[in-house]
Write a structure and sequence with these properties.
Length: 175
C-alpha cells in the first residue's frame, strides 16, 4: 500500500500551475505599456500629429523649454512609463475580473478625460480643451484608448485564463 504523502508528489510529465502574483505582473505590464505606447506617443509628437509635448505629465515641475528639448523627451517618456505602471496596478487590483476589450476602452477614456479635461488644465500640464487643436485631441484620445485596451485586455487575459485553468487542473507535458 502506498504512503499517503506519495499521492502529493509530482508525477513525471505533469506540471502544476502557479497563480500569477498581481503586483509584479501589474508593474511589468505597466512598464511595457508605457514603453510601447509612450514610444508611439513620442512618434505622434515627432511627426506633428500632436502639439502636446511628450513630457506634458511633468509640465508643472519642469520648464516647457526643457520639456521641448531632447532631455525633456526622455523625462516625458519616463513619466509616461511611470503613469502606465500606476494605472496598470490600479486596473489589476480593481478591475481584473472584467472581461472583454470594453473595460479597457473605458479605462483609457477615463484616463484621457482625467488628464486632458480635468487634471491637466488645472495643474497647468495642458492648455484648456478649447485651446488645443483637434489633431492633438483626436490622436492623444485614440492613443489613450489603445493604451487602455492594451492594459485591460492583458490583465483580462491573464486572470480570466488563469481562473479557468487554475481550478486544480494540471497540464500534462507531452514531450
Amino acid at each position: 500500500m502506498a504512503h499517503p504523502k506519495d499521492a502529493n508528489r509530482r508525477k513525471p510529465g505533469v506540471q502544476t500551475i502557479q497563480q500569477t502574483k498581481k503586483l509584479p505582473f501589474a508593474l511589468q505590464l505597466g512598464f511595457f505599456a508605457g514603453l510601447i505606447w509612450g514610444g508611439v506617443r513620442w512618434l505622434f509628437y515627432y511627426f506633428g500629429f500632436t502639439d502636446v509635448v511628450p513630457g506634458f505629465l511633468v509640465e508643472p515641475f519642469f520648464l516647457h523649454d526643457f520639456l521641448a528639448g531632447t532631455a525633456g523627451y526622455f523625462v516625458g517618456y519616463a513619466s509616461f512609463i511611470a503613469m502606465s505602471m500606476i494605472a496598470s496596478v490600479l486596473y489589476t487590483f480593481v478591475a481584473y475580473k472584467l472581461k472583454g476589450p470594453w473595460p479597457g476602452v473605458a479605462f483609457g477614456i477615463v484616463w484621457y478625460a482625467l488628464i486632458y479635461l480635468l487634471i491637466g488644465p488645472l495643474l497647468g500640464m495642458l492648455p484648456p480643451v478649447g485651446v488645443n487643436d483637434w489633431d492633438s485631441l483626436w490622436f492623444d484620445g485614440a492613443l489613450f484608448v489603445l493604451w487602455g485596451v492594451f492594459i485591460g485586455y492583458t490583465v483580462n487575459y491573464e486572470f480570466t485564463d488563469e481562473r479557468e485553468r487554475g481550478q486544480g487542473k494540471s497540464l500534462v507535458n507531452l514531450q
